[in-house]
Structure formats: C-alpha cells, structure tokens
C-alpha cells in the first residue's frame, strides 16, 4: 500500500485519516463531532439531557469493561458511582475541598472499592461472585444510615448541608450551573473513558480478558493469571466509574443522593443498556447507554403515556432485546456494513491497526521485537 512504512504498518496520519476508515467508523466519527456541536445549538433543556446521557453512557461502559469482557456479571456496579460521588461530595462538604480537587478523592475511593470488590473474584465465580456484587451496595446503603450526620442517610448529602458545584474552568462556563458547561464536561469524561477502554480492550490485555470470558481454565493453562487480569479490570472500571460519579454529582445535572448514585435500579439499568447496545463491545455499550437514557427521557415526557411511561418503556426495551439479542450496534454493523476490510476495530478484544502502530513505535524506540 502506498504510503506505508517499511514495516507494513500504517502511520498515525494514515490510521486517523477518515478516508481510510470503514463506513461504520466514519459514522462514529461524525457522531462524536456532532456531540461537540449539539450543546451550542440545542435548547438548554436538551443540553442537560445530552449531559445526563453521556454520564450514564460512561457508567455503562465501565460495567461493560468488567462484565462484558470477563463474563463476571456485576449486579451492583452502582457501588462505584456511589462511592466515587459520595467520597468527593463529603470531601467538599466536610473538609471544604474544592470540587475540582475533590473529584480525585472520589476517583481514588472508587479505585479502592474496585480493589475490594475485585478480590472475591480471586476465589468466586459465576452466581457466587454476582451475589457478592449485589449485596455490597446494599451493605453500603445500610452503613450510610448509621452515619446520617456524615452521609445524610437516605436523603443524601442534601440532608447534611450544601455541596458546592463546579466553578468556571478556563474557557468552559461553569459545569455546575451552565447546561453547556455540563454537556462539555460530560463529553470530556465520556471521550476519556471511551479512549481508555477501547485502547485496553483492543490490546493484548483485552484478548486475555475475552479469553477469561470464554474459557478461564484455558487462559490459566497458557501461564496467564486470570485473577490478576480480573482484578485489573475491576480497579480500572472502579476508577472510571468513580470519575463519572464524582463529576456527575458536582455538575448541573446531578446531585449526591442515594436514588441517583447508589440505588439498585441504577445497576439494573446499566446492565440493560449495555445489552441493548451490544455487550462486550465498549462502543455498543456507549451507544446503548446514551440511547437508553434519551429513550427513557422522551417517553417520560410524552403526555398521553403519562404514568404508564415506565411500562411502555420496559416493553419497548424488551422488544429491542428480543429482536436484536446481540445488541443494536453489532447488529447494525453486521447487517449494514458486512464485508469490512481486515484490521478494523474488533468487538471483543484482539489487535487493531492502532496497536500495530504502537508496537511499531515501541520497536523504533528500542522495544522488544515481536
């Protein structure tokens, strides 16, 4: 191919050239560019909804990274959002830490929670592990009730005092009060999580995680330690989930309440959204999270549906799951864009052109030759 390096690996310029991308990749790039424009042209109420959808999509990606790739189904992933959010909120409320700095407190706390939850995966598998993840947030909520002066109990931090919101950041209007600022903050968190998760799942580590899901014994037979990789997945998922939870709480669209960060229904919605978009794909989970949030919001505001909105929403979601069990994104890619060229991003682990470019640069810098 003209323009290739001597090693046959494409350069960054060639890799990022939209003209060399597959059709579905070009559509994804257009969607991301549209997200930069939407907050400026949409009414304020829809800018809020875009922000909420992007935060929720980040939650869903963090769940998919663990459960979609390792096969260990977590029924209590809201724990990470809650721990990250509450730790950041309490740091601001009780210690007067600036919200921008308190986010790092929330991220560290959620990472520690990921380490704590990940350890059982060294010994437990399948339904036993899922039961642990289900019980853990329930225990945490019970603990909150014992310390209402610190946590606000079931009311959340609003029952204790007023938590500060994000202030202005450089050229960004205050994400704590401005719908445009909140939308761009959510977009930044969303893109950061997307890049991290896609990079890891398309690397050799992603192949191991996928292998654990398919046959953990076979992975162990190759000399790899499945427990170590699962622990890594939980910690990284906790860090990103905590980041999303903390930034969501300080933003204009969120708050530090049990119903918004720790309720069991959030963990269930995250699972449904990931399956809806395409479990074990990251990009599918990102789409599914945003689609799920917007669909639910639109139905809630249709007048003639009224109080029945949740029933109609559940039926519509079930229809999607029934007719597209593999998820919307994988189904669309397979049916509309079948026959893509080799080397496209894969849906569940494996090497891509990006990894080949990274390896080529590592080799140029004196790294290990493969």
Automatic annotation (TrEMBL):
One of its GO terms (cellular component) is plasma membrane. CDD domains: TM_PBP1_LivM_like. The keyword Transmembrane helix applies. It comes from the Archaea. Its main location: membrane. The chain crosses the membrane at residues 27-46, 78-95, 101-119, 128-147, 180-200, 231-250, 262-295, 307-325. This is Branched-chain amino acid ABC transporter permease. PANTHER family: HIGH-AFFINITY BRANCHED-CHAIN AMINO ACID TRANSPORT SYSTEM PERMEASE, HIGH-AFFINITY BRANCHED-CHAIN AMINO ACID TRANSPORT SYSTEM PERMEASE PROTEIN LIVM. Pfam families: BPD_transp_2. It is a multi-pass membrane protein. Keywords: Cell membrane, Membrane, Transmembrane, Transmembrane helix. It is found in: Cell membrane. The keyword Aminoacyl-tRNA synthetase does not apply. The lineage of its organism: Archaea, Methanobacteriati, Methanobacteriota, Stenosarchaea group, Halobacteria.
């Amino acid at each position: 191919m003209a323009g290739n390096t001597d090693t046959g690996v494409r350069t960054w310029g060639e890799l990022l050239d939209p003209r060399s991308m597959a059709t579905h990749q070009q559509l994804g790039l257009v969607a991301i560019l549209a997200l930069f424009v939407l907050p400026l042209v949409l009414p304020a109420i829809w800018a809020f909804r875009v922000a909420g959808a992007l935060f929720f999509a980040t939650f869903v990606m963090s769940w998919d990274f663990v459960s979609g790739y390792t096969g260990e189904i977590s029924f209590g992933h809201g724990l990470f959002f809650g721990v990250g959010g509450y730790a950041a909120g309490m740091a601001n409320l009780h210690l007067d830490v600036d919200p921008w700095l308190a986010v790092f407190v929330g991220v560290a706390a959620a990472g520690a929670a990921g380490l704590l939850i990940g350890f059982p995966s060294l010994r437990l598998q399948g339904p036993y592990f899922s039961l642990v993840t289900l019980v853990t947030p329930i225990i945490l909520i019970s603990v909150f009730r014992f310390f209402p002066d610190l946590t606000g109990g079931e009311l959340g931090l609003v029952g204790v005092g007023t938590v500060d919101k994000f202030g202005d950041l450089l050229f960004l209007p205050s994400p704590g009060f401005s719908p445009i600022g909140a939308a761009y903050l959510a977009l930044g968190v969303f893109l950061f999580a997307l890049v991290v998760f896609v990079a890891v799942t398309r690397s050799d580590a992603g192949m191991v995680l996928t292998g654990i899901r398919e046959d953990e014994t076979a992975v162990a037979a190759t000399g790899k330690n499945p427990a170590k990789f699962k622990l890594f997945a939980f910690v990284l998922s906790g860090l990103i989930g905590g980041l999303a939870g903390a930034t969501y709480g300080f933003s204009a669209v969120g708050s530090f309440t049990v119903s918004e960060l720790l309720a069991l229904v959030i963990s269930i919605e995250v699972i449904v959204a990931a399956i809806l978009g395409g479990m074990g794909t990251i990009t599918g989970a990102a789409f599914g999270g945003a689609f799920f949030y917007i669909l639910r919001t639109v139905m809630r505001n249709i007048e003639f549906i009224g109080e029945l909105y949740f029933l109609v929403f559940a039926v519509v979601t079930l229809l999607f799951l029934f007719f597209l069990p593999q998820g919307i994104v994988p189904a669309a890619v397979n049916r509309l864009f079948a026959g893509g060229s080799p080397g496209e991003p894969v849906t569940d682990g494996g090497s891509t052109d990006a990894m080949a470019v990274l390896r080529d640069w590592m080799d140029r810098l004196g790294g290990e030759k493969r």
